[in-house]
Design goal:
2 copies of one chain form a homodimer. Chain A has 640 residues and is an alpha+beta fold. Chain A has 17 helices and 22 strands. Chain A has a 6-stranded antiparallel β-sheet with strand order 2-6-7-8-12-10. The interface between A and B is large, with 51 and 51 residues. Chains A, B: Its EC number is 3.2.1.185.
C-alpha cells in the first residue's frame, strides 16, 4: 500500500507531557526505572565504559581497552534516564545521571572533542576512519542524550557539552572544514543534529545534517578517499576486504552505494538504514525537500512490502546485520535485531509526522508490540539481540552483549513511549496508539488535557475524555487500525455526524467544539485473526500467523507435547484465555500435533505421513516468548 | 534402523574388472574422460598448482603462492585419471599423467618428503601445524593416487614416490619417531595407509594408520601440545581462536574431541568425519577390532537417523562445513558439500564390506544418485560445492573454486564407479547397484563373468546373465532396495526355491550351481512415491519429497509459473514423462500453484489465503537441477 502523501504535518508530543497509566505499559516503565536502568548502569561500570571516561587507560594499564563506540552505550542510557527523570522524580537516578554527565564533561577535550578511544588509544587518528570507527555515530548519540536531558529536565549541563561537540563537528565537517565531504559509516549524527537544531534553533546544526546526508554516496567516494589517505584498511578492514567486486556490497552495507535521493531499496545494515532514513524524513520536514521526501516514501514502500517480518522485525541476515533480498524472510535464522525494529519505530514516527498518514503508525505499532519488546525478558534484565520467528529450542536471551547497543536502545524507547501515543497539529490532536495515558497539550490556542483509558492493550474499547478550561474547536483524530475490521465511535454517547467514517489518511476525524467533560468511546473488533504472507515469501508458504489487535502470537514447545513446528491449527481459532504473561491474554483452544513417537527419533524418512492427534493449544504473545526457559517456538503455523 | 551386524565380510571389486555400459552412467564416464579431466587439468595448470611442483616459487617471484593442500587436488585428479586409464586406453591422458608423476617425483625431497608449501614457502615448519595445515591430508591423497595408479595400470612410477613418502611418515610418526603422537586435523592419510597396506602387504602402513586413529582425541591433546611448541596460532588460528569455551567446538570440528572409540555422534566438518570413519571401518575389517566396529555402527546410526538429507547430502552448516544439531536440516541453507556426500559413499561401501548388510548400500545409492552427482553440471564442466535442497533462484554452479576439493573428488568417484556395483565374498557375488555393467571376477574357485542389463537407471527390470567356463556352486546376492515395495526374481524364467525371499541382510540369496548362460530376471516396483520426514525435522514439516527408484526429484521455477516453493502437489502423483535431462524421466502431471498476482509484490501480509490454480507440474531429478539457468527450486513440496 503506497501511503497517500498529504501536507498535514504533525508534531510529536514531549515525553514530559504524557503520563502513561496503561496496565500493560506503565508496569514496564516502572520496571525500567526501578530495575533495568540500574542493571544497565552496573554493566556500564562493570565493563569499564564509565571508568574509561577518566582517560587513564594506557597500553600498560590493566583497564579494559576502550572501544570507539562505548560513548554510544553511555549516551543511550543517559537518554533513557533523562526521559524517566522528566516524568518521575528519582534522586538516586538523578545523581547517577549527574555523575555520568560530569565524567563526560571531564573527558571532553578543550576543542569540544569527545571520544575516549581516539583520545587515549589512537590519539592521532581522529576522523581518519569515518567508514568503520563509529566516531560520529557516538557523537550523535551524545547529542541525542544532551537534547533529551535538556528537554526532560530543563537543565543544560549535558546540552552544553554536546553543543560544544557539535560546534566542533560544524567546524570540521562544514564548508571549509578540514574534513568537509566526510560522513559517518554508521548513520546517527544526522538525525541527532536535527534534534539539536530543534532544541536550540541553531541553523548550522540543520545545515551540517544536510551536508552529511547530501555527501553520502557521491563520487569520488569519501570512503575510498579516506582509505587512500590512511593507506591502511579500516577498523573492520579484514571483515570487508575492499576488493572491487565487493565494493558495491560494502557500500550498500552503510547505504553509501548511491546518493540518498537516488536510493530505491532498503539495503545493508538495517539499523544504519533506519537512522539514515530518519534523518532524511526529518530534513524533508524541516526544509520541504521533495527529493528527500520522495526517497523516503520509495524506501518505505520497498521495506514494508518486501523486507519486513510480520513482527516488525527487519534485517534477515546475521552476515551483514541487515537485508539480503526481497522476500527473504527466513524465520529460524531471522536476525531482526532489536535495534533495527526500534529504528523502524523511529522512522515510522517521522514519516507519520511528515505525511499525517496512519499507515506509518500501523507499522510503528506492529514493531513496538512485537519485534521491539521481544528484545527484553519479563523481568527486564535479559535481552535478545536477534529476534528469530522460530526456534529449535537453542536460543535464549543474554544478560548483556559485547556490542551492547540493544539494551539501552530499548530503554530509551520505552522511557519515551509517551511521545508516541499522540501527535498534534495546529488545530488537531491525533490519537495514534491505544495506550492508557493522559496528554497535556495546546491545541487551537487552548490548553487541553486528553485522557485515554483502554480495556487492555489489545482491548476492544477505548474511552477518551477531554478536560479543558474553555470550549474550543479542533479536530480529534482517532486512528483506525487495520487490525480491526470496524471502528465504531460515539461522542458523548451519540454517533457523530458522518457516522465516524475513516478519512483517506486512516483516521476518524471528529471536528467540533470540544468542551470540558466531553467523552469519546471507540469500539474495535479484536477477534483473533490469521495472517497470510505473500506467496513470494518461501519461509511462510503454507503457514499462517495468529494475531489479535496489534499483537502477533507464537507457539512455544513448552505448552504442547510436540515441537512447535509440528503444531497445526484446526478450523477454529484459539480464543483469549488466561493472561499469565501479563495483561495480554494467551490464546487457547484445540489444535493438532504431528508425531510418530519414537520412530521419529529412529529414522529420518518414511513412506507414510505422521499421525495427527488433537492437542490443547496455547499461543502466547510473541513478545513474551522465552520467559519460561529454552523451548522450541514458531510464529508461522500450519493449518490442519 | 540399526543395521544388523553379520560376519559376512565382502571384498570390493577392482575398477579394472568392471565395464560400465549403462545408458545413464556410461555417457557420464565418457564425458569425464573426454572433457572433464581435461578441463580440470587445465585448471591445475592455470591456477599454478602443477607449476608449483618445479619448486621455483620465492617471495619475490610472480608465481602464485603455493598452498599447503594443492597436492591433494593434483592427487585426486591423478587418481581419477588412473581409474580411467585402467578401463580405457587414452595415450594423451596417459602422457599427462606421466608428466604429473614426473613432476611430483621431481618435487620429492631426498628423504621422501613431498609438499611444495612446506618446501618453498615455509621450509622450517614441516609437521609443526598438523591441526590446520593439511600436510598429512595431502600426503594421504598422494598415497591414494599412487595405489590407484598402480592397481589400474600395473605401473609403479607413482607408487614408488608415495611409498617413499609413506616410509618417511612411518619414521616420523611411528613409535620412536620425532612426531609420534601427532595426527592430522583433516583425516585422510589414515584410510590411504590402509589402501597402501592392501596394495603392498607392508604391515607398517596399517600400523601407522592405527597409530593415527588411536592417538586422535587423547589427552594431553596433541593440538594443544603442538600449539604450545609452536607458540603461534595455527594456519586457521584467527578463524578458530583457542578460547577455552570454544575448545570443544574446535576439537569437534576435526573429530578430536574424544578418543574415536568413545565417539557417539557425527560432529564437526563433514568431510573430515567421513574420511575418519572410513579409516575406522577399514581398520576394523583388517584387524577385527570390535571397538572400532562398534563406534562405526553407532556413528552410522546417528548420522543416518538424525543428520542426513533425503538426497544423501550431509553437513547442514556453512559455518563449519559440517554438522550442527540433530534434525537441523534446513533446505535453502543446506551446505551438503559435494565432497561430504562422496565421503559418505566411501564410508558406506566400507561399512557394507565390513558387515555385508544392504542398509549401507541403500545410503550409498541415495547419496550417489542425488547429493553426489548434483555436484556437476550436465556438460561436466561446472560444479556445486554446496548442494541446497531449495533455492530462491540466486544459486548456480561455478567453474572452479579456490578450495578445489569437489571437482576432482567427483571425478575420482565417477571414474571408479565400477567398483561400487558388485562385491564379492569367498563363494558369492553381490549385486549392490543396478547399473548396466559386466564384471569379471573369481568366485568359488572359478572365473565368472556376470553381465547386468537394466531397463534404465530407475527402471523396473534388471537382467543378469552368467558366463562361466564350467558350472560352479556359489551364491548370487541381489540387493532388495527399500525403494521397491517388492522384488520378484526368476532364475532361467522360473521362480527359485524359497520364492526369492529377502534375507536379514537385505539380499535375495540365490544359491545354486551356476552354469554358462544362466539368467536371472529381477522386477522392481518403481512407482512414484512420496517421502515424509521425521516430524522432528522442522524444515520439512508439512512437506513431502517425490522419489522414484533411487532418484529424488525437485521442482524448478523454470517449469512452473510460480516460485517452486508455491507449488502444491495434488492427490495423484506426477508420472514419468519426457527425459530431457538424460535417461532418467521427468515426472509430469497436474498440481497446484499459489499466487495473488501483483498483490504479492505490493504487500507482504494479507487477511486471506492466496488463490490456488491448477498448473501442469514438471519435477526433474534433483541431480539435474540448475542446468537451465538460475531458477527457484524445491525438493520438499506442500500437498494441496
Amino acid at each position: 500500500m503506497e501511503p497517500r502523501s498529504t501536507p498535514a504535518r504533525r508534531m510529536p508530543v514531549n515525553v514530559r507531557d504524557v503520563v502513561v497509566h496503561d496496565p500493560f505499559w506503565a508496569p514496564r516503565q516502572e520496571q525500567l526505572r526501578a530495575r533495568t536502568l540500574d542493571a544497565q548502569y552496573e554493566q556500564l561500570v562493570a565493563t569499564g565504559r564509565l571508568g574509561a571516561l577518566a582517560l587513564t587507560w594506557t597500553p600498560e594499564s590493566d583497564e579494559p581497552k576502550p572501544h570507539p563506540f562505548w560513548e554510544s552505550d553511555i549516551a543511550k542510557w543517559l537518554e533513557a534516564a533523562s526521559y524517566v527523570l522528566g516524568t518521575h522524580p528519582d534522586p538516586a537516578l538523578e545523581a547517577k545521571v549527574d555523575g555520568v554527565i560530569a565524567a563526560l564533561a571531564g573527558a571532553q577535550r578543550e576543542d569540544g572533542y569527545l571520544n575516549v578511544y581516539f583520545t587515549v588509544v589512537a590519539p592521532g587518528q581522529r576522523f581518519t576512519d569515518l567508514r568503520d570507527a563509529h566516531e560520529l555515530y557516538s557523537a550523535g548519540h551524545l547529542i541525542e542524550a544532551g537534547v533529551a536531558h535538556y528537554s526532560s529536565t530543563g537543565r543544560t549541563t549535558l546540552l552544553d557539552v554536546v553543543t560544544r561537540l557539535a560546534d566542533l563537528l560544524c567546524d570540521e565537517f562544514g564548508p571549509g572544514g578540514a574534513h568537509h565531504g566526510g560522513y559517518c559509516g554508521h548513520e546517527e549524527v544526522e538525525l541527532a543534529l536535527v534534534r539539536l537544531y530543534r532544541a536550540t534553533g541553531e541553523r548550522r546544526y540543520l545545515d551540517l545534517s544536510l551536508t552529511f546526508v547530501d555527501a553520502r554516496g557521491t563520487e569520488p567516494h569519501y570512503f575510498d578517499l579516506e582509505q587512500g589517505r590512511r593507506g591502511t584498511p579500516g577498523f573492520f578492514g579484514e571483515m570487508f576486504p575492499q576488493r572491487e567486486h565487493r565494493r558495491r556490497e560494502f557500500f550498500e552495507y552503510n547505504q553509501s552505494h548511491a546518493p540518498v535521493r537516488e536510493q530505491t531499496e532498503a539495503v545493508g545494515h538495517a539499523v544504519r538504514a533506519m537512522y539514515l532514513y530518519c534523518a532524511m524524513a526529518d530534513l524533508a520536514a524541516e526544509t520541504g525537500d521533495e527529493g528527500l521526501r520522495a526517497a523516503c516514501e520509495r524506501l518505505w514502500t520497498h521495506l514494508t512490502t518486501r523486507r519486513m517480518y510480520v513482527t516488525g522485525g527487519i534485517g534477515d541476515s546475521r552476515h551483514n546485520e541487515g537485508f539480503t533480498r526481497d522476500h527473504a524472510l527466513p524465520n529460524e535464522t531471522a536476525y531482526a535485531e532489536t535495534c533495527a525494529a526500534i529504528g523502524l519505530v523511529f522512522w515510522a514516527r517521522r514519516m507519520a509526522s511528515l505525511t499525517g498518514h496512519a499507515a506509518y503508525i500501523e507499522v510503528l505499532e506492529r514493531a513496538l508490540h512485537n519485534g521491539v519488546i521481544a528484545g527484553v525478558s519479563a523481568d527486564g534484565q535479559r535481552f535478545f539481540y536477534e529476534n528469530p520467528l522460530a526456534s529449535d529450542g537453542t536460543v535464549e536471551r543474554a544478560d548483556w552483549f559485547d556490542c551492547a547497543c540493544c539494551p539501552p536502545n530499548l530503554a530509551r524507547l520505552e522511557a519515551s513511549l509517551g511521545s508516541y501515543i499522540y501527535a498534534t497539529a495546529a488545530d488537531a490532536i491525533a490519537v495514534d496508539l491505544f495506550i492508557g495515558s493522559t496528554v497535556t497539550t495546546d491545541v487551537a490556542g487552548s490548553r487541553v488535557v486528553l485522557r485515554q483509558d483502554t480495556s487492555g492493550p489489545s482491548g476492544d474499547r477505548v474511552d477518551l475524555t477531554v478536560a479543558a478550561a474553555a470550549p474550543a474547536t479542533w479536530s480529534l483524530l482517532v486512528r483506525a487500525p487495520s487490525w480491526s475490521r470496524s471502528v465504531a465511535v460515539r461522542v458523548n454517547g451519540e454517533v457523530p455526524d458522518g457516522g465516524g467514517a475513516v478519512d483517506e489518511n486512516g483516521y476518524v476525524v471528529l471536528r467540533r467544539e470540544w468542551a470540558d467533560g466531553d467523552t469519546v468511546e471507540v469500539a474495535f473488533d479484536v477477534d483473533v485473526r490469521r495472517v497470510h504472507a505473500s506467496t513470494l515469501v518461501a519461509a511462510d508458504a503454507g503457514r499462517v500467523a495468529l494475531a489479535r489487535g496489534p499483537f502477533v502470537y507464537c507457539v512455544e514447545g513448552v505448552d504442547v507435547d510436540v515441537p512447535a513446528h509440528a503444531v497445526l491449527l484446526g478450523e477454529a481459532n484459539p480464543q483469549p484465555g488466561a493472561t499469565p504473561s501479563g495483561v495480554v491474554p494467551d490464546l487457547t483452544g484445540p489444535a493438532w500435533g504431528e508425531s510418530r513417537g519414537q520412530a521419529d527419533q529412529d529414522s529420518l524418512y518414511f513412506p507414510e505421513r505422521a499421525a495427527r492427534a488433537e492437542l490443547p493449544l496455547t499461543a502466547v504473545p510473541y513478545y513474551s516468548w522465552n520467559n519460561r526457559g529454552r523451548s522450541t517456538m514458531a510464529v508461522w503455523l500450519r493449518e490442519a
